[in-house]
Specification:
Elements lengths: L14 H30 L12 H5 L55 H16 L5 E4 L4 H15 L2 H4 L16 E5 L1 H10 L6 E2 L7 E3 L21
Antiparallel strand pairs: 1-2, 2-4, 3-4
């Protein structure tokens, strides 16, 4: 009995393995050609200048899309919708602080309030009439304290050199009509002239020749004033 079995080939590649290998090689070659063709299209195509070329073999082989490019946009500056002159949006203007002006009250010596009722009433009527004539009578010295009168006398003694000469201008407190509220000194010169001329109508008269500013209630209203004295004389004690 004989054995007709064919001897086995050693080193032969199975036909199925060759077929699979050929398919893989063809696929790789085809993929490389497609990639190369796509890159050439991106470089030389009509949109070559519009988007950047991204070359990544591994990314394209895996099918991942190329990274997208974003253009940075700048927002336009915000413009107000209201007008600058709109009163609803304009802050209120702050007013500067106002200064308080303090009016100083005249001293009692510069007011007729300290005078005797008779001289006060007559002088008020004379001042009203003078104002209507365009003349303002100002009080420079009305009622004085005894201390003020004595101080004025001491100054007059130093100025004129003797008590006798000083008392022609300033009497001692116990003889002064100013201390009693029965005399008033006025100004300016226009007021002195007006009251010297018209004071008799209101019972107010100038008393001394050397003091054109000194007035007292020496007569009844509407009657002639008595003759003036040359100057004041201190009474003997």
């Amino acid at each position: 009995m004989t054995n007709d079995l064919r001897p086995r080939r050693t080193g032969a590649v199975p036909p199925r393995l060759l077929s699979v290998t050929g398919v893989v090689v063809v696929g790789v070659v085809a993929g490389s050609l497609l990639l190369w063709h796509a890159q050439l299209g991106e470089i030389f195509g009509p949109d070559a200048d519009k988007s950047p070329v991204v070359s990544s073999v591994s990314a394209l082989a895996l099918g991942a899309p190329p990274p997208a490019t974003t253009l940075a946009t700048t927002k336009p500056p915000h413009t107000p919708t209201h007008s600058p002159s709109d009163p609803s949006t304009t802050p209120p203007a702050t007013k500067p602080p106002q200064k308080t002006v303090k009016t100083s009250k005249p001293s009692p010596e510069e007011s007729i309030n300290g005078l005797s009722p008779k001289l006060k009433a007559r002088l008020r009527k004379a001042m009203t009439a003078a104002k209507a004539a365009g003349v303002t009578i100002r009080i420079t010295s009305a009622r004085r304290s005894a201390a003020k009168q004595q101080r004025l006398l001491n100054e007059a003694i130093r100025k004129y050199g003797s008590y006798k000469l000083a008392t022609r201008w300033v009497l001692p407190p116990k003889y002064s009509a100013h201390v009693l509220g029965k005399a008033v000194d006025i100004g300016p010169a226009a007021a002195m002239q007006w009251l010297n001329k018209n004071g008799w109508r209101y019972g107010v008269c100038r008393r001394y020749d050397n003091e054109p500013w000194h007035f007292e209630a020496l007569t009844a209203p509407g009657t002639k004033c008595p003759p003036r004295e040359p100057h004041a004389v201190a009474k003997a004690d």
